[in-house]
Write a structure and sequence with these properties.
Helices cover 63% and strands 11% of the residues. The chain is α+β, with helices and mostly antiparallel strands. The strands form 2 sheets. The chain has a 4-stranded antiparallel β-sheet with strand order 1-4-5-6, with no helix packed on it. Strands 2-3 form a two-stranded antiparallel ribbon. The two termini are 76 Å apart.
């Protein structure tokens, strides 16, 4: 009667355990609700420059060589490659979790039990073999295989493996995004270096121009046509322009070393040809349509994979409420003497059993993990929507930048032409005493600034071209 009551109690506990496992908190996961516009400024053209490989997009051999070297030696890229390997290892670990775990082992030892114990008293009245009592110190030899297998009824382990696989693919996309960023950063720094070279050349030319003007003013002073003030003003302008040289030279050193850092090498000169910088063509950009960003932007793909992994993680956390089914098995040999070790079936032993385990009391930790998984899924949705919104705005901004910089460059070119002509005119008028020295000085100063601004605008045009290529998802192929 007592045995029947015990069985009933165990059965009741099992029913309560299963019922309690079914009481899972209900939290609705969030769905993506962001609608992507149909076009950029009404264009329906689906051809996009993002499909162009970076080797074809950039034409400068020196720049291509820098990018090649950076993709091989850049420390951040190589760090991300190790992150990919770590994620890949996690996939292998999760894959092995839903397969049986088997161990093999062997052992040898000696057991001595107290005579005044139940086992010792029993051994004293028994013979280990006919005619030989059980010794006080009994040897023990064993070898066997043990296996444990959790049956993945609720797909908890398989879903964990799927989540790990998605996160592995997400790290690959993260590396691709880093590659696009690296290529764009090297290209922008390279164009900045070329722009600084041209600005330094312009300064050198203007120093010569200021020096010639200073010589003229000194001659004019000898004939009392100008005062010492004019001489000092032109001298100050020469000193100011010479001083400005060193500021640009410092910027050149820092820009070169920024490129050297990205390429993964110690300081050295960066090969380039800056002679025809202002003549570099600005190609028209084919942007395609916004929906293509979902496939071309690696940061969006990374966020999408992270979202899918987060959705699966909710199912994994949910499965923790359900019972676990575990099968244990063992097979081997065990004997007190080595000569009987492999006697079958006398020394053979085996076991087979199953366990059904479910959380019953104090499930707060499981609930907390489930709530956290839901929160992370909602967070992943917002991250995905944010990546789409950011990508679209970046493209629109850069496309607008290209249009506006082209108009600005055309006007600045006309300004440079006008001021260049004004230098000759002001110098001629000054020699004929029809203009004072300040008009000459200000005209030369304005011409210098306009030329430097023209170079800066050209650099901004090239940077905008690179940035829109990156914003559209180009560079990682």
């Amino acid at each position: 009667m007592k045995m029947n009551n015990l069985i009933k109690l165990i059965g009741l506990c099992l029913i309560v355990c299963l019922f309690d496992s079914c009481q899972i908190p209900q939290i609705a996961t969030k769905k993506v609700s962001l609608l992507i516009p149909d076009s950029y400024a009404g264009s329906k053209d689906t051809v996009t420059v993002s499909k162009t490989a970076w080797r074809a997009f950039f034409k400068d051999p020196a720049l291509i060589a820098l990018i090649d070297s950076a993709l091989e030696k850049n420390q951040e890229v190589n760090i991300l490659m190790q992150e990919i390997q770590l994620a890949k290892n996690d996939v292998l670990a999760k894959q092995g979790a839903y397969l049986p775990f088997a161990t093999v082992g062997a052992g040898a030892g000696v057991d001595k039990v107290g005579r005044y114990t139940s086992q010792g008293a029993s051994d004293a009245n028994n013979e280990i073999v006919p005619g030989k009592p059980v010794p006080d110190a009994l040897q023990n030899y064993a070898i066997g295989i043990n296996a444990t297998w959790e049956i993945d009824v609720w797909k908890k382990l398989r879903n964990a493996k799927k989540s790990a696989l998605l996160r592995y693919l997400s790290t690959v996309e993260g590396k691709n995004f880093m590659v696009t960023h690296l290529i764009a950063e090297i290209a922008n720094s390279y164009y900045e270096l070329m722009a600084l070279d041209n600005q330094l050349t312009i300064l050198n030319q203007n120093i010569e121009l200021y020096q010639n003007s200073l010589d003229i003013v000194r001659i004019e002073k000898q004939y009392a046509r100008v005062t010492e003030l004019a001489v000092r003003r032109f001298e100050a302008e020469v000193f100011k322009t010479k001083s400005r040289q060193f500021s640009i030279k410092q910027q050149i050193v820092e820009t070169e070393n920024r490129i050297n850092f990205l390429v993964g090498r110690f300081p050295q000169a960066v090969l380039r040809n800056s002679t025809h910088f202002t003549d570099l063509a600005i190609d028209s950009i084919q942007a395609g349509i916004p929906s293509q960003l979902l496939f071309n932007r690696t940061d969006i793909k990374q966020a999408e994979l992270a979202l899918k992994a987060a959705e699966i993680d909710v199912n994994v956390a949910k499965a923790e409420f359900y019972p676990s089914f575990v099968i244990n098995a063992g097979l081997g040999y065990r004997a007190f003497n080595a000569k009987y070790f492999l006697d079958t079936p006398e020394s053979l032993l085996f076991n087979l059993g199953g366990n059904l385990v479910a959380p019953l009391i104090n499930r707060n930790a499981i609930k907390a993990n489930f709530y956290s998984a839901n929160n992370k899924q909602v967070q992943a949705v917002y991250e995905y929507e944010r990546s789409i919104l950011r990508a679209h705005l970046e493209v629109v901004n850069q496309l607008s930048q290209i249009v506006n910089l082209k108009k600005s460059y055309d006007l600045k070119s006309q300004q440079v032409d006008a001021l260049t002509q004004s230098i000759e005119i002001s110098s001629t008028l000054f020699k004929s005493a029809r203009a004072d020295y300040m008009e000459v000085l200000l005209t030369q100063r304005d011409a210098l600034e306009s030329k430097i601004e023209l170079v800066e605008t050209k650099k901004q045009q090239l940077n905008a071209q690179v940035n829109v290529y990156q914003a559209l998802g180009g560079g990682w192929r």
